[in-house]
Prior knowledge:
By secondary structure, this protein is mostly helical.
Amino acid sequence: MSDGVNSRSSYRPPPPATTGGSAGGHSGRGPGPHPRVTSLPKKRQAVSIACDACRSRKIKCDGQQTCFTCRKNQIECTYKTLRASPSTQELQRKYAESENKVKNFEAFITLLRSHKEKEAMEICKRVRSGVDVETVLSLVQDGDLLVQMHLHPETQFQYTFPYIRHMPAFLC
C-alpha cells in the first residue's frame, strides 16, 4: 500500500469539497475555516511553431525565445527558420516579371508572323541554340533599326523647281 501512497504524492491533491448551506455549521461567509482555494495553472496557449528540442521530443512548447522546457533542462533553445510567406512587394515583382514574359512571347510570335519564312527560320534557330526570347527580340528589332539607319537616303533632287532660275538668290 505504500506504493499507492508514493505514487499519489506526485499528483496534485483534489480540491476540497464545498459544503452547501449550513451542513458544516459554516455558510462559507464570515469567520471560520475556509476551504483551501488552489488556483489552477494557466492553460498554455497554442503556438504555431515549437523549438527544435520540443519538436524532436514531441512535447508542448510555449514558443518563447528560450522556452520553459529548454530553460528547465538547461539546453540551447533553437528554432528552425521557416521561410515567411512572400511579401506583397515580392508578389508584385513576380507578377510584373510574368507579365513581361507574356508580352515578350506575344511580340516574338508577332515577329515570326511578320517576317518571311526564311528570316523566321533564322530567328527560330537562334532561340533553339539557347538565346532567350528577349535577347532575340532586341537583336531583331535593333537590327532592323540599324539596317534602316545604314541605308543612305537619296541626296539628289528628284524634282527641280522650274522657276528656280528666275528667283532671287536670297530666296534659294
